[in-house]
Amino acid sequence: RGSVKDFPGFDASQDAEALYNAMKGFGSDKEAILDLITSRSNKQRVEICQSYKSLYGKDLIADLKYELTGKFERLIVSLMRPPAYSDAKEIKDAIAGVGTDEKCLIEILASRTNQEIHDLVAAYKDAYERDLEADVVGDTSGHFKKMLVVLLQGTREEDDVVSEDLVEQDAKDLLEAGELKWGTDEAQFIYILGRRSKQHLRLVFDEYLKISGKPIERSIRGELSGDFEKLMLAVVKCIRSTPEYFAERLYKAMKGLGTRDNTLIRIMVSRSEIDMLDIREVFRTKYEKSLYNMIKEDTSGEYKKALLKLCGGDDE
């Protein structure tokens, strides 16, 4: 359900040459770079990088960084990295230096599949020769940290066989861990929301609503706080509907004054080959305007053109 697909009749060395020519001499042909890169799939872009290296003995990403600037550069470079390396770079940036970008950690770790998490951990190790879990643990604290560590294991159950008894038990355990308890048993929330399959948890949420009279989200808001609360809400949203979670993140990134460009870039790049069409659909229904139009109104220049190519079409 992605908006970006493999380019037909793809030729890596031809593309490498076209990019080389677009960057040769004084100034660069940004339009040519943009058109080429946004119309190739990630797998193809990686091959172009390899061809570029063998043809010119140079690193394409380094050349693009040198030629381009600002948000446009960030977007294009992000497209050139394999998804797991892109995620690794985002997380590295989120925990480097003073302060932590918790929103970035939450967004990536709450939304990725087991396989994507395993790939991310391996890519992080490969790129930075560091252990992702150790770095996250060193940079976060409390229940927020514990839940991130659970998500980093990538051990969410994946079977779709659902036991009704377990659904009822989990719903009851969550109710007893929160609403019916003085104080909150966070460990129960972490265990159930961090480990059970999506299919199972959707039924648990239905059952929870039935026995408590309120949606699980409302209980989480009442029982948990801070980044831990935000993380758990993100996990619940992704379990209910990942495209809806991302549609909401995109809307918030562009709503009001100023644009959260890092969020916008990260989501448009990471979802362009996975579920961009679903995200667009949810966005259109939920906000009564197309994602395409909102990007168009909110951004400018080559940066805007590249984002619109990744969006893949207008749903107005």
From TrEMBL:
Alphabetical keyword list: Annexin, Calcium, Calcium/phospholipid-binding, Cell projection, Cilium, Cytoplasm, Nucleus, Phospholipase A2 inhibitor, Repeat
Name used for this protein in its record: Annexin
UniProt-listed SUPFAM superfamilies: Annexin
Keyword set includes ATP-binding: no
Main location: membrane
Source superkingdom: Eukaryota
Location in the cell: Basolateral cell membrane; Cell projection, Cilium; Cytoplasm; Melanosome
Organism annotation: Eurypyga helias
